[in-house]
Amino acid sequence: MSQPLAATPSLEDVTESIIFPPGDIFSDEPPLESDLQGFHLVDGQYQDLVPTESGWLWSQQLGLYLAVYLGKLRFFTPDGHLVMLPEEESNQQAFFG
User: Fold this and answer.
1) Radius of gyration of the chain (CA)
2) Which H or E element spans position 12?
3) What is the pTM assigned to this prediction?
4) Are the beta carbons of 16 and 27 closer than 8 angstroms?
5) Is the pLDDT at 4 greater than 80, yes or no?
6) Long-range Cβ pairs for the range 59-65 (8 Å, 24+)
């Protein structure tokens, strides 16, 4: 079970983070799997998100995992599939017709 943080992350902490729908904060500085951290707002306090064995973090708000893939933050579906970027989808459609 996650433990409440001693203090709510400061604005300085958040500027190095990616903020998603209300209540979720993910930090990737530097973008290494072992450094990925996430927090979820519960009753006015941020609690650590516990990563999966693979180091992925679940965003309840988005219904997606966030993980470092090839050195970049990427989303994954609940069943583990990479969510493609628009340009990746275009390339795939061009390649496969």
Assistant:
1) 15
2) helix 11-15
3) 0.63
4) yes
5) no
6) 59/20, 59/21, 59/24, 59/26, 60/24, 61/20, 61/21, 61/22, 61/23, 61/24, 62/20, 62/21, 62/24
Q: What percent of the chain has pLDDT over 70?
A: 63
**Gap between the Cα atoms of 60 and 52, Å rounded:** 14
Burial of 46 from C-beta contacts in 10 A (0-12 / 13-18 / 19+): buried
* DSSP characters over 22-91: TTEEEE-SS--GGG-EEEEEETTEEEEPPP-TTS-EEETTTTEEEEEETTEEEEE-TTSPBPPPHHHHHH
Is the CA virtual torsion 65, 85, 13, 11 positive or negative? negative
CA gap 19, 84 in Å, rounded: 20
The pLDDT tens digits for 25-57 are 565 555 555 577 888 888 888 888 899 998 899
Pair 31, 72: CB distance under 8 Å: yes
